């Protein structure tokens, strides 16, 4: 037995060595030009091979069952299949949900208007527009990886193909709907089943991915803060990449949760909370940067000594976390640094207040000591946020018994964008219907179907015209390949096996292209429309006329949709930034006067969402404008957080009456900040400086230790607000058109 085990071990080592020679570890694979086709990565090739085989199996089963349009089963496999198991299962679930909703709505539509073409087209357009409206408001960013939105896209997709197929034969609409639903369910079940056969230690790899995501985020934040503490103020530009990375990693957590299976606990919730704490950690770093660059001035020797220790800790922290699953040594070092910050604050208070009966301290010394306490307090807050992030990370890596923790996904609804997306889709589809009715085109229903599919898929995106252009390119290539197959290669095969052999390489090429980011939308179009253009059947074979009556409506429909997206409520980056800026100013007023005080996490996540949206839609905008808006978003986030902290201080009623009044007046000004008629920016900035001056005078008069600390906290918030208002005046002044010449 030992000899057999040794032989098996050697054989496994030889296999691993063979694959290492093909794909050396750590090697960066180029994907430019055509390397994605003839030199793909092993995972890319595995995905393409698996999905090709699955789609051919789905097509074979549909032909075996003698279903009317078997190509829809193969199409569904390509629509659902993704690179990871978690993405595939998540997308399959929402696709199945969307299929059920779309099927029910399609049956009702055909039953209500079987012989009223204008009303049928109108309700078809309104229905898909409604799905786009709901999809835009669902949680998460409007990207192709957000499968909640994909559920609504699938609803519109199914609604269109069933109703447009059924309106030609309204009496058999139920059978049409059931056959289409059967194709979709068959494709989903097969893709989920086959992909599950190729998973090895799936739950363990999902847990490792959660840990790796956190390590990536926390290491980026730690290195940024360490550079900031060393005096490198330019490092704040790196924080933008860290914020964007946090959003991307957080979006992947739900897929890891799916892969961990039914026996998972709340690891995903803790991981989501840990990443949110990392974002809060960076926001605290922005506070400290404002204090270090503002009127607080140069830090003293005590702060520099503590800062040096913190820098060393931040640089080594990621390595210590990766080296061991035991987080307690890291938390112990962190506790020592927190104690050092608190001790610095205590020493400063002892020096300022002195002993009973001692001489009063010089007012300038009082102000200097107060400012140094603010630095130490801000550094302590950074360490406190870091502690919370590490605790949440440890809970995600080592699940707790009887854990009931839940971290809800935040939703930032944009009703104006939802209405725009809905109206754009409805107008485009209704226009296609009018073309069909007025021209009586024999392939008009096919033309409307393709337009409806594109509107369902892309109207929830902010730049649907660009996506449709890429889709059009993929459809043209699919038409050429399908033309060669239909008119030449598939003219002679009489068995399924030979047909599958002819389709294998064209489908495999589409799967390989899907993994290349520059071709992903074109590859999706190619993979979706190739089965439709082939039109396989048991008793029939496409001839030239049938092929061109499918290919021409496809190309014309995508071309029409692309131009409709450009003409009907087109996306404007200048207007998007302008609306974002007015929304930020409105948000600051809301934070200052809302009856229910928003949480700091809400402010951070909302601004990070804006941050990512701005970067996603940068297009050809000059870097100076993008950088200025990014700086404005970070500055607004910093002001909003400090406004929340000031409101919390006011609600505690520990400030002296005079200080309470002055800070309250400043908050009243903030509640009107850059309002409708402008002019409030200067008043708010002056009010912040006035409050700082009064609190500095009151600080030296307070004998109570708690009151003195409360005044220091309020002063720290006011210093940060005043600094941000002064250094981003043009962004916060609503009377200024800022950097967009179109809005000038």
Compact summary:
The chain is mainly alpha-helical and 744 residues long. The protein is built from 28 helices and no strands.
Descriptive account of the structure:
The structure is a single chain. This protein has 744 residues and is mainly alpha-helical. It contains 28 helices and no strands.
Characterize the overall form.
Answer: elongated
SSE succession: HHHHHHHHHHHHHHHHHHHHHHHHHHHH
Which percent band covers the strand fraction?
under 5%
- The parts where pLDDT drops under 50 for at least 5 residues are 22-29, 355-359
**Using only CA atoms, what is the Rg?**
31 Å
Provide the residue-averaged pLDDT: 83
Number of strands: 0
Total of DSSP H or I helical runs spanning 4+ residues: 28
Distance between the termini: 82 Å
Major β-sheet, in short?
none
Can you give the helix content as a percent range? over 70%
GO cellular component, one term: plasma membrane
Membrane topology: Multi-pass membrane protein
Main location: membrane
Pfam families: FUSC
């Amino acid at each position: 037995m030992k000899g057999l085990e040794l032989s098996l071990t050697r054989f496994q080592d030889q296999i691993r060595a063979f694959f290492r020679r093909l794909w050396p570890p750590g090697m960066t694979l180029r994907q430019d030009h055509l390397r994605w086709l003839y030199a793909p990565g092993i995972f890319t090739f595995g995905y393409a091979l698996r999905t090709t085989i699955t789609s051919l199996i789905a097509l074979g089963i549909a032909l075996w069952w003698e279903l009317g349009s078997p190509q829809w089963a193969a199409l569904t496999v390509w629509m659902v299949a993704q690179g990871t198991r978690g993405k595939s299962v998540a997308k399959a679930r929402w696709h199945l949900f969307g299929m059920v909703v779309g099927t029910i709505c399609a049956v009702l539509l055909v039953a209500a208007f079987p012989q009223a073409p204008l009303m049928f087209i109108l309700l078809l357009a309104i229905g898909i527009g409604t799905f786009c409206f709901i999809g835009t408001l669902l949680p998460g960013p409007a990207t192709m990886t957000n499968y909640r939105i994909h559920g609504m896209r699938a609803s519109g997709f199914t609604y269109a193909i069933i109703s447009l197929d059924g309106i030609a034969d309204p009496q058999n609409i139920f059978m049409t709907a059931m056959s289409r639903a059967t194709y979709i369910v068959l494709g989903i079940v097969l893709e989920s089943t086959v992909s599950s056969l190729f998973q090895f230690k799936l739950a363990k790899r999902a847990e490792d991915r959660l840990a790796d995501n956190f390590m990536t985020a926390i290491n980026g934040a730690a290195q940024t803060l360490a550079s900031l503490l060393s005096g490198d103020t330019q490092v704040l530009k790196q924080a933008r990449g860290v914020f964007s990375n946090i959003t991307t990693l957080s979006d992947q957590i739900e897929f890891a949760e799916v892969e961990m299976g039914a026996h998972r606990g709340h690891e995903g919730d803790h991981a989501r909370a840990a990443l949110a704490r990392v974002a809060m950690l960076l926001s605290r770093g922005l506070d400290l940067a404002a204090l270090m660059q503002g009127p607080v001035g140069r830090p003293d020797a005590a702060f520099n000594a503590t800062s040096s220790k913190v820098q060393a800790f931040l640089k080594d922290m990621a390595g210590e976390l990766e080296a061991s699953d035991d987080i307690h040594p890291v938390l112990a070092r962190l506790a020592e640094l927190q104690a050092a910050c608190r001790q610095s604050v205590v020493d400063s208070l002892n020096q300022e207040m002195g002993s009973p009966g001692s001489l009063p301290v010089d007012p300038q010394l009082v102000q200097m000591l107060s400012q140094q306490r603010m630095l130490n307090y801000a550094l302590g807050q950074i360490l406190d946020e870091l502690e919370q992030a590490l605790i949440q990370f440890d809970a995600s890596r080592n699940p707790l018994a009887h854990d009931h923790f839940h971290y809800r996904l935040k939703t930032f609804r944009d009703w104006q964008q939802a209405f725009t997306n809905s109206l754009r889709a409805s107008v485009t589809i209704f226009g296609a219907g009018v073309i069909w009715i007025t021209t009586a085109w024999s392939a008009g229903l096919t033309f409307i179907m393709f337009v409806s599919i594109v509107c369902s898929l892309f109207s929830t995106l902010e730049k649907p015209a660009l996506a449709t252009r890429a889709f059009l390119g993929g459809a043209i290539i699919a038409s050429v390949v399908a033309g060669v197959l239909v008119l030449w290669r598939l003219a002679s095969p009489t068995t399924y096996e030979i047909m599958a052999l002819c389709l294998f390489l064209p489908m495999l090429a589409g799967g390989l292209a899907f993994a290349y980011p520059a071709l992903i939308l074109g590859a999706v179009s190619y993979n979706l429309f190739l089965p439709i253009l082939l039109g396989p059947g048991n008793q029939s074979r496409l001839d030239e006329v049938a092929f061109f009556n499918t290919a021409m409506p496809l190309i014309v429909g995508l071309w029409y949709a692309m131009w409709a997206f450009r003409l009907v409520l087109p996306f404007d980056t200048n207007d998007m930034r302008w609306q974002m800026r007015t929304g930020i100013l409105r948000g600051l007023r809301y934070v200052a006067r809302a009856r229910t005080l928003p949480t700091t996490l809400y402010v951070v996540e909302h601004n990070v969402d804006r941050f990512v949206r701005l970067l996603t839609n940068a297009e050809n905008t000059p870097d100076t404008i993008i950088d200025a808006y990014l700086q404005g978003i970070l500055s607004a986030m910093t002001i909003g957080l400090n406004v929340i902290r000031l409101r919390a201080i006011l609600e505690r009623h520990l400030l002296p009456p005079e200080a309470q009044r002055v800070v309250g007046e400043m908050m009243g000004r903030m509640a009107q900040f850059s309002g409708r008629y402008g002019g409030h920016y200067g008043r708010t900035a002056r009010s912040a400086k006035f409050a700082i001056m009064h609190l500095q005078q009151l600080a030296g008069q307070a004998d109570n230790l708690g009151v003195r600390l409360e005044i220091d906290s309020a002063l720290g918030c006011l210093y940060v607000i005043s600094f941000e208002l002064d250094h981003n005046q043009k962004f916060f002044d609503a009377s200024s058109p800022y950097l967009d010449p179109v809005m000038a």
